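Throughout our pipeline, every protein is held as a single compact record rather than as scattered files. The record that follows is passed on verbatim for readers who wish to inspect the format:
___
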Amino acid sequence: MILVTGDPIREAPSDVRHFEFIHYELNKHVEFFDRLDNALRNVFRDRYEGLFNSAIRIFRDFKTVTRAHVNAVDKDMFIQRLAEAERTRELPDLGDEKGVTEFVLPRIIAENSDLDTMRVITEWIASKFEDTINNSPD
């Protein structure tokens, strides 16, 4: 939990002192936003950890199978892309392998605006999960 206050932190009630406090002063707004941004990144970093771990595994599988010449973005950029995507859609459940793959693979690949790369991603996902559908018991 993050608490924002204009009051001195030493005056905070003792039952909330273990939370992260961010002190705000009008003449130190840049410092305030830097601290708030850092605190929020730490909150979301934990939330997105499972998707990041899945993305790395999926990315390696994709690169091995397709031999695509692509690079992965760093964790901070990946988290930024997830946060942007989450504004318009829900995060997939980690148990939904196809949903996770479709969601994280384009976001872990650095060259995700390249049309050829996106075509290879789309074809690989279709092929990977077509096998799953064709081999599932009905």
